[in-house]
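Action item from last week, closing it out:
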Amino acid sequence: NGGECTGGSPNGDLRRGGPKPAADHPGGPHTVAAVRPPTTDDIDAIHRLANEILRAEGQPMVFAREEVVEFWDDPHGDPSVDQVVIDDPDGDGLIGWATVGHTPSGQRLERAFLDGGVRPDHEGQGIGRRLLEWSIDRATERLAATPAHLEASVLVDRADGDDGRRRLFERFGFHDARYFDELLRDLDDLPEPTSPDGITILPWAPQHSADVRPVANAAFADHWGSTPRDEAAWTHGLSTHGTRLDLSFVAIDEGTREIVGYSLNSHYPDDIDITGRRDGWIDSIGTLRSHRGRGIASALIVRSLHAFAATGLDHTMLGVDSANPTGAYGIYTRLGYEPLRRDIVSRRITRPAADQTPA
């Protein structure tokens, strides 16, 4: 079993993208809102705005202040050019925000991700369209600087059933590309931990971090939309809010003593205010192709569930591509996970691969 979780997102290193680009209700006045780049003085206002949007959408998560701060630490992002905000004309904080994320790949394909939103009391004024226009332009600009022979695409996502965003995205040339499900399991009646023959499951130690990166890149090489992470992006990801290396595990081949699989896990304590649960997230899990079919992913998950329970968590979540090529979905359901919600990823190709024509 190969195993793959990306928190419902194809980028392989984020559990969640935060608020989605906002849909404008039909018939509202179209105003051209002025955008400006944010500064660190806007961190608290962005934090408030993001959570206002999440609550209005009914999204089961809290966007922590630390997650906003991390935009300024991203080795491949610069909020002064990759983000914009819109001020409330009455001086009451922010009414809009957009961000473009791109981690250069240099191989397979290049992708840019869009996030952001509009404060609920200012929807229907054309602000969502204005932010999406800016985001697409900035994403296209960033992608144009990547190798010309690689496919380049802009990605957005929405909750299943969100027809307002579906219409907005379609208006801007996006087409549904993939479905990502979030699965939930309680931490009662856990299966006993086991290790496949010839494999040792170990807690993630500091010396493992650098060695897991090439394993993760190789394990995800045959997954839709996945691109490799360089050392800077990987190191940044391991230090982001919620990441729990103390609850994470690696699988070691006893013959070669090399890492052949891993489970990178997280816990987001603020979410309990919305969900009423203490969730342990299996954020990213992968097994090298050469070692699939031996139960390594299942062993890593079971060890993770026991670690979650031992630290006082009561549920576990993970995200999975519903069309995962490794059969991961079946692995997770056999381990007791059940579907909770679905996000739909839409794509707009800005540059086809050199040997392809636009889809």
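Closing note: Residues 1-17, 25-30 have pLDDT under 50 and may be disordered.
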